[in-house]
TrEMBL record:
It holds the Pfam family RVT_2. This is Retrovirus-related Pol polyprotein from transposon RE2. The keyword Repressor does not apply. GO terms for molecular function: hydrolase activity; metal ion binding; nucleic acid binding. Keywords: Hydrolase, Metal-binding. It comes from the Eukaryota. Residues 113-241 form the Reverse transcriptase Ty1/copia-type domain. InterPro entries: Retrotran_Ty1/copia-like, RNaseH-like_sf, RNaseH_sf, RVT_2. It comes from Sesamum calycinum.
Length: 242
C-alpha cells in the first residue's frame, strides 16, 4: 500500500464564498452585554475575512446565519490572517480598491517630495528592488479606520562598500530626554509632540542609488527605466542617517 504525498495549501478556494469555515464558541464564563454567552464565526477561505454573530443560546446557531440582524451581527471583523503581503494579494483582496487608493496616495507623497527621477538604467548597475507594505489601521471600536500602503526599498540587497559605507541607528539617549524634561519642568515649559508625515522622505542621499519602479504603478511608456533616488526612502541602509 502506497501513500500519496500530502500537498499543503494555505488556501483551498479559488474565489469568494467557494469555501466557508464555521465554528461555534461557548458558553463563555462571563456573559456579554445583552446576555450573549455564545458566538459563531464564519471565515471565507479565499479572502480570509471573518464574520461574527453573537448568540444567547447554542441552539440559535442556524438562525443566526439565516437572520443575522436578530442576533447582534458584528459585521466584517477584518482579515483573520495578516494583511496582504504582496501586490498580487492586495489586488485580489476584497478591499483591493482601498489598497489601490492607499498606493496612489503614497505615490503622490513621493512625487510631491521629488523622491526620484526616472532615468535609463546605467550599465553595470543593479537597481535596488522595492515592495509594497500594506496595513489596516484598526480603531478603538474594532472597525478599520485607515488603509495604508508604504513603498519600501529592499535595503537588505544593498552591499556594504558598494551601495553604502555605514549605517546609523536614530536612537535618542534616555539621559537626553530626562534633561529636556527637567528643563521644561523647571521653567514650566509646555511640551508638544508632533508626528511628521513621510519624515524619511525629507533627507537627501549622498550615494548614487537606483531603484526599480513600484509594482503596479510603473510609468506608462517608460517601464524599462529605473528610479534615480534623490531623497531617502523607507528600507534603505541610508534612511536612518537621513
Amino acid at each position: 500500500m502506497t501513500k500519496k504525498p500530502f500537498v499543503g495549501q494555505s488556501k483551498l478556494a479559488n474565489g469568494l464564498l467557494d469555501l466557508i469555515h464555521t465554528d461555534v464558541c461557548g458558553p463563555l464564563n462571563t456573559q456579554a452585554r445583552g446576555g450573549f454567552s455564545y458566538f459563531i464565526t464564519f471565515t471565507d477561505d479565499h479572502s480570509r475575512y471573518g464574520y461574527v454573530y453573537l448568540m444567547r443560546y447554542k441552539s440559535e446557531a442556524f438562525e443566526s446565519a439565516t437572520a443575522p440582524e436578530r442576533y447582534g451581527f458584528l459585521g466584517v471583523t477584518g482579515q483573520l490572517d495578516n494583511d496582504p503581503k504582496t501586490y498580487g494579494e492586495a489586488m485580489s483582496d476584497i478591499d483591493s480598491g482601498k489598497w489601490l487608493e492607499a498606493m496612489k496616495s503614497e505615490m503622490d507623497s513621493m512625487i510631491s517630495n521629488q523622491v526620484w527621477t526616472l532615468v535609463d538604467r546605467p550599465k553595470g548597475v543593479k537597481p535596488v528592488g522595492c515592495k509594497w507594505v500594506y496595513k489596516r489601521k484598526i480603531g478603538a471600536d474594532g472597525e478599520v479606520t485607515t488603509f495604508k500602503a508604504r513603498l519600501v526599498a529592499k535595503g537588505y540587497t544593498q552591499r556594504l562598500g558598494v551601495d553604502f559605507e555605514e549605517t546609523f541607528s536614530p536612537v535618542a539617549m534616555a539621559k537626553s530626554i530626562w534633561i529636556l524634561l527637567a528643563i521644561a519642568a523647571w521653567y514650566d515649559y509646555e511640551i508638544w509632540q508632533i508626528d511628521v508625515n513621510t519624515v524619511f522622505l525629507n533627507g537627501f542621499v549622498e550615494e548614487e542609488i537606483y531603484m526599480d519602479q513600484p509594482e503596479g504603478l510603473t510609468t506608462v511608456g517608460e517601464e524599462q527605466k529605473v528610479c534615480h533616488l534623490q531623497t531617502s526612502i523607507y528600507g534603505l541602509k541610508q534612511a536612518s542617517r537621513s
